Amino acid sequence: MELHIVINGRKDLAAQLYQQLREAICAGRLSAGAQLPPSRLLAEQLGVSRKTVSDTYATLTYEGLLVGKIGRGTFVNAWAPQPDRQQTATDLACAANLAKWAALPSPMRHPLRDNILRYEFIGGATTRNQFPQDEWRRCTQDALRRIAQDSGFYSQPEGLPALRDAIAGHIAFSRGVKCGASDVVVTNGAQQALDLIARVVVEPGTIVAMEDPGYSPARQLFLAMGARVAGVPVDEHGMQVDLIPDGTRLIYVTPSHQFPLGMPMSLPRREALLARAIELGAIIIEDDYDSEFRYEGRPTDSLQSMDTRGVVTYVGTFSKTLLPELRLGYAVLPPAIYGAVLKAKQLTDQHSSTLPQWALAKFISEGYLQKHIRRCHSVYAGRRERILQRLAGDLSPWLEAVPSVAGFHMAALCTVAVNIPLLMERARQADVGLYPLNVFFHDTPVRAGLIIGFGAIETLDIDPALDRVRDILQQIG
Question: What's this model's pTM, rounded to 2 decimal places?
Answer without folding.
Answer: 0.81
